[in-house]
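Hi D.,

Good news: the full-assembly prediction came through. Inputs first.
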Amino acid sequence: MIAIYVVAAIAVFAVIRATIERNTGRKLPYVNVMNFAVAGAVVLLLDHPLALAAAAAYFVGSTLEANAVASTYAGGERRG
Amino acid sequence: MLGEFLHILAAAAVSWILFVTVDILFKLPETGGVSGASAIARDIEAGGGALAGGTMMGNIVCSPDASAGTLLAACGVYVAGIPGGLAAAVLVYIGNRICHDPGYAGTTGAVLATFVIYGFTQIGFAATDFIAGMVIAILTIQGLSHTHASRLLARLWRVRE
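Then the structure:
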């Protein structure tokens, strides 16, 4: 069962990269990698059907936060 | 142990091809879905990357796309087989709407990934291989070199155009 160790190592690596990166726009993709790794780790650690709901709730919530941070960083206006 | 590691690497390659293909078919590199995605794209371009690839990376950050769909489908198949994967697709769909994303890349990716991952579990792969594989796949795009990843995505986007 090395999957959990691979996922955990990537989470730590992503946190270090996000901490070192100074530019907010380039920091968010590293945080995104950490979110993927944490969502995967939740399911790998908790082998239960509700773990899927927990992982999805965490992932969608953290993505929404990244969305909010990025949009605030962009000035809050909608350009898309 | 080595066998499991090779399975994870193979799963990473399959996941990578799946989510990049679906995202590019759904035109994620074309335009930022929200202003934040465009801001991330500009910063990646300012760092030496390509704008189209940066836009796709910004969209991945700002809303669950096919990569998130693949990860959650792998989680769903792991805990409950095909019904779990399809439940993950529903959760991704809800996540897209919450994140102000009108697209269907995430939902489509989750449904496709459910059947692909289930197929691989029939030939000796474990769903956990795909959970770790998808995390490796997203690491190669978002976590190693934004410059090179965005240029590669932009090159693939030009092929799509």
